[in-house]
Write a structure and sequence with these properties.
The chain is of the alpha/beta class. It folds into 2 domains: 233 residues, Alpha-Beta Complex (Spore Coat Polysaccharide Biosynthesis Protein SpsA, Chain A), CATH 3.90.550; 101 residues, 3 Solenoid (UDP N-Acetylglucosamine Acyltransferase, domain 1). Helices cover 20% and strands 31% of the residues. The protein has 8 helices and 29 strands. Strands 5-4-1-6-11-8-12 form a 7-stranded mixed beta sheet, with helices on both faces. The chain is elongated, with a radius of gyration of 21 Å. The mean pLDDT is 90.
Length: 338
Amino acid sequence: MKALIAAGGRSTRLRPITHSINKHLIPLAGRPMLEYVIEKLVEADIRDIIINVNPGETGIMHAAFGDGGRWDAAISYVEQQGGAKGIAHAVANAEPYLRGGPFVFFLGDNIMTGSIRKMRERYEAEGFDCMVALSRVEDPSRFGVPEFNPDGSLKRAIEKPASPPSPFAITGIYFFNERYFDAFKTISPSPRGEYEITDMITWYITHGRVGHEEITGWWKDTGTPDALLEGNTFLLSQTRIGEGTVIGEDVTIRDPVVIGTGCHIEQAVVGPHVSIGDNARVRGAAIQRSIVMDGTTLEGGFSVDRSIIGRNARITSRNSVGSGPSKLILGDNAVVEL
C-alpha cells in the first residue's frame, strides 16, 4: 500500500508564521509536525510515501525529510499543479504515483495518538472501497461531517454543514482504492471553488462499500494557533535539553520542555509545555505553553504565554513588565520591544 501526505497549502490561519515557513515544518515538541505523520504510516507498515508540496518547495521538504531512509521508507515528492483547488484535487494530482492499487491519504497537519494499523487491516480484510477515520468533536461544523443511516452505515458526507447531522468530524485520514481517479472526473467544484473530499466519499457510498473507524485517542487538526499549541503541549512528554545548550544561573525549568542545541538560558523561567529551537537565547524572561523557533532571543523582565515565535525573532524589554504574560504570534525575524 502507498501513502499520500498533503503538505501543501498556504495556511492563512497561521499567518504571519506561515509567510516564511511551510506549516508542516513548524516544530511540535522539537520536531517538524510532518515527522509524526510519517511515523504513523511506517508504524502501519506503509513505507512507500509520496508527499504533496507547493510548487517550488520540493527542495525545502526534501532537505527536511530526505528520501525516507531514516524510517526505512521510500519518500518521493510531487508538486501541486493547477493551484489550490481542494484536497480532493491534490489526490488527483498524484494519480501517476498512486495508480495500481489502494492507498491512504493523510493530511499532514493531523496529529493523533493512536495507530492507523487497525484501520488498514479492516480496510483490507473487509474489502472496503473506501474507509474514513472519524473523531467526536465539540464543533463539527468546522469539518466534513458524516451522516448515518439507521443501521449505522454512512449515508453521505457533508462539508462544513451549518447544522451538523452527527457529532463527528471526518478526520484527515482516508483509505481509497484506485477507482478514486475515475470517480474524481465525475465531480464538480463546490460553491467555494474546491473539489471536496466529502463529495468523493459520498460517491464511494453510492458506488461501493465504505467503512468508518472512530479514533478513540487524542486527535487534532493543527490549523489554528491554539490548536498548534495544544498539539505541542500534548506531544511534550518529558524534558529534553540539546547538546551544547548552557543552562545558567537562576533558571527554573518546569517540566516538560524541549530545548534545542546551542541555546543559552539564564535568569529565566521555562515551562511547562515549552518547545525552544536551536541557538535560541532566553535571559530574564518567563515563558510557558509556547513554541519558540530557532535563533530567537527573549531578553528582559517579561513573560509570555500561549505564544508562537518564529525564527530569528528578537523580543526585548527595557523595564520589568508587570501586567501579566503577553501572547505573541510572530513570524520570522520579527523585532518587538515590550
